[in-house]
Please model this.
Amino acid sequence: MLVSVAGHAADDQPLSNAQLDQLVAPIALYPDSLLSQLLMATTYPDEFAKAYEWSKAHPDAKGDAAVKQVESQNWDPSVASMVAFPEVLITLGGQPKWVKDMGDAFLGQTSGVMDAVQRLRAQAQKAGNLKSNEQVTVTSQPASTSSSQQVIVVEPAKPDVVYVPAYNPTVVYGAWAYPTYPPYYYPPPPGYWFSTAVMTGIAWGVGIAVGNALWGGCNWGSSNVNINVNKYNNINTNRKIEGGGDRSSWKHDPGHRTSDYRGGSAERNRRQQDFNTNQREQFRGRDNAGTRDVGNRDNGGRNNGNREVANRDNARENSRRQAAQTMENRGIGSPDHRGGGSAGQMDRNRGGGQGGGFDNSNRARGDTGARQQPSRDNALTGVNDRQSGRDSARGRESMSSQRSQGTSRAASSNRSGGGAARSTHQRPARSGGRGR
Model:
């Protein structure tokens, strides 16, 4: 009678080595790449069950071609990859409780599961049942500084051909160390080549030609699994992994799981939060933050551009007003300035014949013009755009034209009789000077 793992450990307690070995025993001798993808797939027990039913309905589908046939299914890529290996799905898919327990153990105790695989491989190797042959290459790596356990790697002898082993865990590992927790053994269903019970050793099935369907890997140094990005993207064309690097650490996606986790709703919430955090870290500075940065730059550029246009328009308007004021001031006060007199004296000379009111007005205007002369020069000097230059040029031309017209009118007035009164009022001091 098989013992249930759940009956020996509370949901909030980690599994013991004996319980982990019991769970891992049916798959510990699988090639590393297939093992890694199977461990990923068991974390989605609902979709694993769907893939199992699909494989039963398509008994001849296998390899990359089978994976392409389920491309339209909304399954996690690890689950979809299992249809390439019908022996695995037909044998394990009929054990939904084992699938869920295995997936929960892998999620909750990843390094513990990986260590259990290595313990069992060492036992099978010691019993003489795990060694290189035509189907697999078995190599041993020395223990790392962080672990006293050596690493046993199992790889397909031919990279593109995978043989799925069939074995009886109660035999292949030799004497079992935990009588209370005997290894799980699920004989294949009738009708398949591996349906005959394997009493001793390991039986190897028919080789399955695969290319990109086998994209997983075991990272024994960090006791985790990873993804060969290039192979993964070649077969999962509609769900590619973006970013640089040939290898990517695998992350569980709660969106592909509807059944609860070991630990209940609290564990589900934690898994969802972990996944959301991972997504934010993955896309920070590339999608959302990048979009915000671009948007801010665009808005800032538009705002700055609008302010710059408004400033130029204001500068042009101020320049026009200053030029108009300057033209008026120059037309009244400039001749006398050049002659050494004051602006007020110029206004009195020009307006004397028309009454004191006009004289006072012109005096005020002349004084204003004299006071504004320095600020006018500074204002015009500070205007740098072309429009302001053109406005200033037109202002100078207009002032020059007014001075010319003023000179002509004065000359004409002096010659005519209508200017006699003005000449009589303006000339005596200068005539007297010449007489002396």
In short: The two ends are 147 Å apart (CA to CA). The longest strand covers residues 136-141. Residues 1-8, 280-303, 332-384, 410-436 have pLDDT under 50 and may be disordered.
